[in-house]
User: Fold Alkylhydroperoxidase from Streptomyces silvensis.
Amino acid sequence: MDHRLDFASSPVSGSALKHLAAAGRTVAESTVPAATLELAALRISQINGCGFCVDMHTKNALQAGEDQQRLHLVAVWREATVFTDAERAALALAEQGTRIADAAGGVPDEVWADAAKHYDETQLGALVTAIAVLNAFNRLNVMTQRPAGDYQPGQFG
Assistant:
């Protein structure tokens, strides 16, 4: 697969990419556990079929000490016993926020309420921002056919 466009080198998309990356760094500085953010990022990327992001978030999570079994089970998190209730709430919010076009009303109240039991308002804001930013990155990579497999943890700083 050939990468259609290096959007980082274009003046307009490159500038926008820097802003998206800055939003991602802001979320990473929140009090939402880094493992939760990586699990959500991985699930979002699986749903969107973004191979580059699946590769990146799997490798980042492993480097941060995440357990391989948990990473293997993210796609089937509902049936897995290895996730906390808070992680499950974040994964449900990530899925519903990613599949927003499929759900005629957006994120269901019960999914939001469950997330609100585990995360305060600031953390919910961070999760919602993370979900939106990851979906944007996924779409950029999928549209431009960015290949997966050669990501190195930390390559983006």
Observations:
- Residues 33-143 form a domain with the AhpD-like fold (CATH 1.20.1290.10).
- The mean pLDDT is 93.
- The radius of gyration is 15 Å.
